[in-house]
Specification:
Length: about 475
């Protein structure tokens, strides 16, 4: 019997070794100057123009009129809470607040607190915050550029609380961050492409160009959701530009990770500790949960323009569609509460600010197209999903994130994983929900990378 076991183990080991090889596929070469704007490709205006959010009164009046004309919402099923999607009983109270109490004049002033700009990259006007740190005269610190990228259905609103936490020097660190926080193309105040093809790989090129335009040849990156995918792509496609990538959604979706995940359902100890076992097993439970939550992804990856018509015409529809995500993705248990515990981690004003960035710019349709452009055969043929990220990487794993993978699998994808932390609380919208935890993790990650660099430099100079 032990012989059979031994042979099986060897066989498994061999297959695993084969699938676990971390060879880099041949990387695609993406042009830096692909033109996404209207008309023929042409030289763009490279100026960097100051920008302030200033929405005409008619847009706000129109919004309030639409809210006042919302048809009566279909009553939720008894006891269904948010398990059939948004709970319309609770949504009603949100819509009333939006119409009667939400003060855009005040909120807009808050969103204009940090300096914003627009500049044209590859034919598209890109909107971004550019926040320089205040460096104390008596204690000079190094200023490191950090690109912060949001995802869907988020926006630059998510970063408002983290901005001061990252741009104010800390007594225990000899560096501080200079922040660039853009709206992704097709999101908020950034232009959207006029022709197909601007997927997450091409967005990575565009964002690198933005940083270069601002004079940053080398920079740190941070992101969750699409922000994590795009920063990963930047590190793969433009590795010499990246000092380090901090992600709050790390994922290794290679053939070998899938193989190990399945093997791990028989012998979990191969890949995951007892403590974290229930975050990924039983597979049947977690996969069916994913199917339950990923309907939106299928729609947006295939027919974004159809659902976009409804969402861009009805603020109630937009609120339903987006707020459902802010409930369930913050904590899956929240869907069993009547109020979706929407205000457990966010204020109603913060949630509405984020909605406003989609509403006033009418960008929900173009935001959803990022899925169609990224989950198609043209994009998949670039094989970036199976490419290794070789720049220094930090993974912050939040307990209520939509999916979980143990460090052992993440290491198959991220070859220079400098830091992996299991966070004490928080979900998908980490920087919005837990700005302090996320910011602390970024400080600690960059501290490690900088220290490693210094050690290397010292070693080299001693050799000389
Ligand atoms: C909204 O806020 C502004 C600025 O604080 C204030 O002047 C205005 O009266 C407020 N509007 C309403 C309807 O409360």
């Amino acid at each position: 019997m032990w012989k059979l076991t031994l042979v099986s183990l060897l066989l498994i080991y061999g297959i695993a070794k084969y699938f676990g090889s971390t060879g880099q596929p041949e990387l695609p070469v993406l042009p830096s100057d692909q033109y996404w704007g209207p008309g023929q490709a042409r030289e763009v205006d490279k100026s960097i123009r100051p920008f302030k959010i200033d929405i005409p009164k008619q847009v706000i009046d129109d919004l309030k009129t639409r809210l006042s004309r919302t048809r009566s919402l279909t009553k939720p099923l008894e006891g269904a809470a948010w398990t059939y999607g948004v709970n319309t009983g609770y949504l009603q109270t949100v819509l009333e607040y939006w119409r009667e109490k939400y003060n855009w004049t005040e909120r807009q002033a808050l969103l204009n607190k940090y300096p914003q700009f627009k500049t044209n990259i590859q034919g598209l006007d890109i909107h971004f915050y550019h926040v320089k740190p205040t460096v104390p005269k008596d204690r000079p610190v190094r200023v490191l550029p950090l690109l912060l990228l949001h995802g869907w259905p988020g926006s630059v609103v998510e970063f408002q609380k983290a901005i001061p936490l990252l741009s104010t020097p800390r007594p225990d660190q000899d560096f501080v961050f200079e922040l660039v926080v853009p709206s992704l193309p097709g999101y908020g105040f950034s232009d959207s492409a006029v022709r197909p093809g601007l997927g997450s790989a091409q967005v990575a090129v565009l964002m690198t160009n933005l940083m270069n335009r601002l004079g940053f040849e080398k920079f740190y990156t941070q992101g969750g959701d699409w922000g994590s995918l795009i920063t990963t792509n930047i590190g793969i496609l433009r590795p010499t530009n990246v000092l380090g990538a901090h992600l709050n959604l790390c994922s290794s979706r290679t053939v070998s990770s899938t193989f190990w995940s399945i093997l791990g359902s028989y012998i979990p100890s191969l890949i995951v500790s007892d403590e974290h076992w229930s975050k990924m097993y039983p597979l049947s439970y977690h996969w069916s949960r994913l199917v339950e939550e990923m309907g939106y992804l299928h729609i947006q990856s295939t027919k974004p323009d159809t659902v976009g018509v409804a969402l861009s015409d009805s603020p109630a529809g937009l609120a339903a569609y987006i707020l459902e995500k802010f409930s369930t993705w913050t904590n899956p248990e929240y869907r069993f509460s009547e109020d979706g515990k929407l205000l457990e981690k966010f204020t109603i004003d913060e949630l509405l600010d984020n909605l406003m960035l989609y509403w006033v710019t009418n960008s929900i349709t173009t935001s959803m197209r990022l899925y169609s452009e990224s989950f198609n055969s043209a994009q998949q043929s670039l094989k970036l999903d199976s490419a290794n990220l070789r720049v220094p990487t930090g993974c912050a794993i939040f307990p209520h994130e939509i999916s979980y993978q143990p460090e052992s699998l993440l290491r198959l994808r991220y070859s220079d994983l400098v830091q992996v932390n299991h966070m004490p609380r928080g979900g998908h919208f980490a920087i919005f929900e837990e700005p302090q935890l996320l910011a602390d993790d970024v400080w600690s990650f960059v501290g490690l990378v900088e220290k490693k660099k210094k050690t290397k430099q010292t070693a080299t100079s001693t050799e000389l």
